[in-house]
Amino acid sequence: MTDEMDIIKAPIDKYLSEFEKRFKESMKSSVPLIDIITRYIYKRKGKQVRPMFVFLTAELCGGVTETTYTAATLIELLHTATLVHDDIVDDSNERRGFFSVNALWKNKIAVLVGDFLLSRGMLHAIDNNAIQLLQIVSNSVREMSEGELLQIQKARDLNIEENIYFDIIRKKTATLIASCCACGAASAGVEQSMIDKMYHFGELTGIAFQLKDDLFDYEKNSDTGKPHGIDIKEHKMTLPLIYMLRNMKYSERKRVINIIKNHSDDTVKVAEVIKRVNESGGIAYTRQKMLEYQQEAANMLLEFPDSEIRKSLERLVKYIVERKK
User: What domain range includes position 139?
Assistant: First the structure.
């Protein structure tokens, strides 16, 4: 049976194959330890969704160029660096089922490897005279940092309104996918209004992506048969939880906040919160919002002529909200 991702990739497969070679080359260093770690990272890479957005958007806007490869490599270097740093911030020992860099080589080395990848991305853009791409991506780095810090600030008192939550995920998650689409469009040589349009398309898709991640926390783990509850344990305020708290009586809200603040390691109490979120309609509300953002993004693609590339982008946007992990 053909995998959905294989169908999505088909029109840009030759570009992705060439990109893989260039991306691997971009991480090389004269320092043996860095080479060992970056090879480990490369072998455990994900589905390459972000480079797919770059190449599909470039094709949609006129065609892949040499600058498109620069854009995809720059963004994937940046994304990889943020994952390495995120694992340190979250004190996480696993990434996609494998040991994280910080788990194997400790925090000090992991921070420096993340810094190395960031610098390689910036130098790659400068060396290829892609200052416009660097401006787009640097803005994303700033917004991602702001989003993470805003989330940490709000997690302290668990006081967050829905509009603030959407501001957080727009900065923390959506901005990078938006940059993929903007850089893809820019690499094809289109005017600024089209770059802005594709940025907005990526932003809508990125928000839908994060809402799907929020829902995973309340779905059953295939190994244990129980919901993950990781966001609750980490005091992260996601939309299902925000919706429930907003519609609760003060006394009930106070009890739930107390559990999240002071008893997040108690699996029984966390399970109680998850159950209440499900009963509150928070899951259904989040799913509805996710589909609204996905549909708005899909509608933007209808402005382009029908083609295999447009179909692949439509499939990719749909995959974002239907994926299993």
Answer: 4-322
